[in-house]
Automatic annotation (TrEMBL):
Entry protein name: BTB domain-containing protein
PROSITE patterns, per the entry: BTB (PS50097)
Residue intervals of the BTB domain: 15-90
Signal peptide segment: none
Amino acid sequence: MNSTMNYPGLWFEDGDIVLSANPHVGDARRLFLVHKHTLSSYSPVFWNIFNEPSGVRAEDVDGIQAKNDVELLQVNDPASDLAELLQCLYYPTQMPFNFKEPTVNIDMGGLLRLCKKYDIADLAARVVNQLKFEWPTSLAIYEQHEARVRMLGLAHADAPGGQIDEKYLDDRFPEPASIVALAREFDIPELLPAAFYALSLISPRAKYDMYHSPIARQHPECAARLAMLTRSARWSLLAPADLLRLARGQDQLRSPTALTKMFEGRTRSADCSAGCDALLVALRRLAGDTHDILGALTYLRIYITEPDRAPKMKICRTCAAATCGVVATLRLRIWSSLPLWFGVPGVRWHQSNQNWPADQVR
Ligand SMILES: [Zn+2]
């Protein structure tokens, strides 16, 4: 089969080089008419290809062939990844990812692979920054992330069939096992603690590819689970050593004694009421039941500080303030322990209360 298809939006009539990239299986090759100058200005590898083609490795490209007036370069890259790369280079103000929402529509691993192959360092750094935002390296960024998950979770729980714009909650976030694989491939261990934590909240029975195949989504049981905000993962991508790290981290997260001890140390004051005692009982149950201990602590803080709920819970002011203090300390302690618990010690962890640099937020 020799059919080809011009890629819409990346076919510039004044271009001087056609890139021909690998299609999906059985599909036509995709062609991009672009500019040698643009590619060379970003990528020393493309510069070499155009200026010193004899030094280019044959396994990377098939060499340049002149066809009519425009030259053609066959590259062994997936067309979808190459399209993302060219979009980023040609439309830098419209990056297909930003710090406002998680990236689900593009394969960041595929993009990063091409950045490395063609030595496009600036874009690679932006992709890594985006990943570090989505898989937080500080508790402050993780708090923003939690708030977004909570908000979207509430919206999807209220929506008919759990869907908004034909998307389930699970469609709105990147899948964590592929992030572990990406972190391993590109040596970005800082992403691992947050990715492992996300995996620790997902049932091993919830398989991403099963939940997201078009046929499975029509199945009532699968649709019901997705509507109940079930999250899924590509479990088969995890290496045995990473599965073991995950299990060990989960074990640490589910030993609740350390958690309740801090609360149990408190003495009753004269102002204490029935709500103060009930709080401790609720907390013990929370520590024993939940998988998402960081999230549960945030919920606890929200419950006792929300003006609508706090008066009904009848917790004295002293206990409410003390509990909020303990929640903050515990969250920081748990967060700081994640690299150790998930077996990725020595990661360069941002200062725990550091926000994302303002100039990088777009
Ligand atoms: Zn009290």
